[in-house]
Amino acid sequence: RGMSSFQSRSLSLVGESLPEGAGGLVQAAPGSWRFQLTSGSICSSLVVDARLTADWLSFSAASGEIALAPPPGPESALEILRWNAGLPGGARFAAGPGASELSLRADIPAMDGLLERIDLRRHVAQICAGFREGAALFHRSSPCPAPAGTPSRDGAPGSLPALVKDSLTLAGWTLHERGPNHLAVDLDLPGVFHQALVESLAGGINVHAPLLDFERLPAACVAALGRFLLLGCRALRMARVAAVAGHNGTSLRIEAAVPDLADPLEVSGALESVAAGCRVLLAEAKALEDEAVARAFLAAHRGGRDPFVDRSTVVSVVSVGAEGPLSGPER
Fold it and tell me: 3-state SS string over 247-313?
């Protein structure tokens, strides 16, 4: 009964939070809703599903509403990971189980009553902006016009609030000051020392941790890494894999975006999601730098088999299991 009441309140919250250019909200099932992004020619048919659980409010744009087949060639998946780095609202491209399926996804943490404490309208507006930009990138078109009220990402970054630092320390994270708007945070990963960086940027806070840096790799390695990491984006919650320019080439990283004026618990949740992604993806991503391993991976998954549920994969990927996508460990 409590969950039903929570879902009923959340339906009102979601409906009230839809930005201009989004409408037609209908309840598809208990805890599940659907609406349309109607601004711009590309986005006129972009159907978005929202699903609420006790811990997450998750959004996904049906892959058929974007397109099915990504651009051909080994670089295509890597290019999509580059797109991920620029999408607002934590939106991300993710691969489906089929070799040619793509979707857009995003998540808002809902645990501990967060949905009723955060600026949900701002969160949803940023996610919708990210979905519009993602669809425009995919179709190689101009982005859909941003509706009035869409949060801006312009402006100078500010300092990290002391409340964020205090709450992360209280939650058990080990912090290292790197300046007024940077924190390095130790991640609890088995057998390896790894850190995430918490940055205050224009429009919010970004949490990210490195996966892999490379200047040049064989085509098979690039294709396998892209495919594997896009599948990883489907398994993650709140976090995404993004490709950005590194010092000597390309840097692959796991990141999670938190809008400004965030509840400190959101920042801790972003760290947990990034840490969970590193646990599952880090060792396998490094293994795929080996061309023989990459070729074997591509051969094993040519039929669209998903390494996150298919335990016969040639790379020893940790299975997501019956519970579904990763959401970070409880601390």
Answer: CCEEEEEEEEEEECCCCHHHHHHHHHHHHHHHHHHHHHHHHCCCHHHHHHHHHHCCCCCCCCCCCCC
Q: In whole angstroms, what is the distance from residue 91 CA to residue 104 CA?
A: 7
Is residue 75 very low, low, confident or very high in pLDDT (cuts 50, 70, 90)? low
What DSSP state is assigned to residue 69? S
* Confidence class for position 30, pLDDT limits 50, 70, 90: confident
Find the mean pLDDT for residues 30-42: 70
Q: Which residue carries 């208990």 as its tokens?
A: 30
Count how many residues are written for the chain.
Answer: 331
Q: Which of 298, 254, 243, 247 is nearest to 280 (CA)?
A: 254
Please give the residue that has the higher pLDDT: either 313 or 200: 200
Give the pLDDT of residue 190.
Answer: 84
Query: In which element (H, E) is residue 244 found?
Result: strand 240-246
Q: How many helices (H) and strands (E) does the chain have?
A: 8, 12
Using the predicted structure, report yes or no on whether residue 43 has a pLDDT greater than 60. no
How far is residue 175 from each of residues 124, 165, 167, 257, measured CA to CA in Å?
A: 30, 8, 11, 19
Cβ–Cβ under 8 Å, residues 306 and 232: no
Q: How far apart are CA 296 and CA 288, in angstroms?
A: 10
CA distances from 147 to 20, 84, 144 (A): 6, 21, 9
- Return the structure tokens found at 241: 């894999």
Neighbours of 49 (CB within 10 A): 16
Q: How far apart are CA 294 and CA 306, in angstroms?
A: 15
Beta strands in 80-167 (DSSP E): 92-95, 102-109
First to last CA, the chain: 27
**How many Cα atoms within 13 Å fall on the side-chain side of residue 51?**
10
pLDDT, one tens digit per residue, over 178-236 is 877 889 999 988 888 999 999 887 768 899 999 999 989 999 999 899 989 998 999 99
